[in-house]
Design brief:
Helices cover 49% and strands 17% of the residues. By secondary structure, it is an alpha+beta fold.
Length: 377
């Protein structure tokens, strides 16, 4: 189908990747900024239904350096259809704050894709682009050095959410043996704060087969319902099935901390570190808990060990800076933050770190005076 579907103010954008002749639409430079890097894309920019349709027809010709950006007049809950597609693109969803809020990676043909979160635009890129360039949720987006701005505003998306969920159920009817379609609908419900519907699907899936992802997802739902003990049990089972599934232990630690069970969180992390002594994130999380408990001795010991094994990692440098700040060693903290900024120049807190470095490192050098040759030491 090559037409746009309008149902109760709902626009279902058809992503048709078929060859067609060129159409003269706007072009621009799209910037995607993560803490580690900035990625620039030459994009075709579509602002009308006709341009969205014609532009998607031409997307076959796009390369790693190109993308197709749709900008909508105002926020909407959109349903994307890949029926008829020959290739599987990455679809990046952008909200009114010019931030990435969801990514459909390697979108399969003959499916519907939707998020319950309102979006202002979407960019279509080649399959695997987001993983190769570190694009993730929270990445900032600019078009020609400007943020995207809605021309319309509203706050009721209930009808569109109902329509979108119906389309995702169509996926299940069309592909009843594909568990990914059930999981996609459950994630849609979960993101849309329809936790009971999501819980029902994940519990049913778990009766068929337990996977770390399903257990972790059910744990997230139970934690949101403040059923913390059951949630932790799910996270523990997920970690037991796959001790490399990091998100499960992190969620367990977070829930234990919310319960005030810091000792339990520390015990959980220590056990995980024994299983994976090379895992830097486990050690960083434990060190941060120690800092939060003002146990700087243990945090410092972990920082030393991390420096020996992962000294050049930006997260280790930031941890060292935080420890130096707590200890009042601001010059050393500034050095650590400077090293961090060299590796993560586009961190959202970069301006704050630069100000700290300026005050406690550069400015201090100026105040220390000049050497005999008139040059600052």
């Amino acid at each position: 189908m090559r037409s746009l579907v309008m149902v109760r103010f709902i626009l279902s954008v058809m992503l048709i990747l078929a060859s067609a002749g060129s159409s003269a639409i706007e072009t621009g430079k799209l910037i995607l900024a993560s803490p580690e890097q900035i990625t620039a894309l030459d994009t075709a920019v579509a602002r009308t239904p006709e341009e969205w349709r014609d532009g998607f027809k031409e997307f076959e010709a796009f390369s790693e350096e190109n993308g197709f950006l749709m900008i909508f007049p105002g926020e909407r809950v959109f349903v994307f259809s890949t029926h008829g597609n020959k290739r599987s693109p990455d679809i990046i969803l952008i909200n009114k704050y010019s931030r990435v809020i969801q990514i459909f990676q390697d979108a399969k043909p003959d499916r519907y894709y939707a998020s319950p979160q309102p979006i202002l635009g979407a960019v279509n890129v080649t399959s695997g682009f987001c993983e190769r360039h570190g694009i993730r949720i929270g990445t900032g987006v600019q078009l020609n050095a400007a943020s995207l701005k809605p021309r319309e505003s509203r706050d009721d998306f209930s009808e569109e959410i109902v329509f979108a969920s119906a389309k995702l159920r169509d996926n299940i009817e069309s592909h009843p043996d594909d568990p990914d379609q059930y999981e996609a609908l459950a994630e849609f419900y979960l993101a849309g704060e329809m936790s009971e519907d999501a819980e029902e699907i994940f519990r049913d899936l778990l009766t068929r087969k337990e996977t770390p992802y399903r257990l972790n997802s059910l744990g997230r739902i139970l934690a949101g319902q403040r059923k913390y003990d059951e949630a932790v049990q799910c996270f523990r089972r997920a970690f037991k099935l796959d001790s490399g599934y990091e998100i499960s232990y992190r969620n367990a630690v977070q829930v234990l901390s919310i319960q005030g069970n810091i000792d339990g969180a520390i015990e959980f992390l220590r056990a995980a570190i024994e299983m994976h002594p090379e895992n830097m994130n486990l050690q960083l999380d434990l060190a941060r808990i120690y800092i939060g408990q003002n146990d700087f001795k243990r945090a410092g010991e972990m920082s030393i060990n991390l420096n020996k094994s992962h000294g050049s990692d930006p997260e280790v440098l930031k941890l060292q800076g935080d420890l130096y700040v707590r200890d009042g060693q601001f010059r050393l903290a500034a050095q650590s933050y400077l090293g961090y900024l060299k590796l993560r120049p586009y961190d959202p807190r970069a301006a704050e770190y630069r100000a700290f470095v300026t005050v406690h490192m550069i400015r201090k050098l100026q105040l220390d005076g000049e050497g005999e040759d008139g040059v600052h030491e």
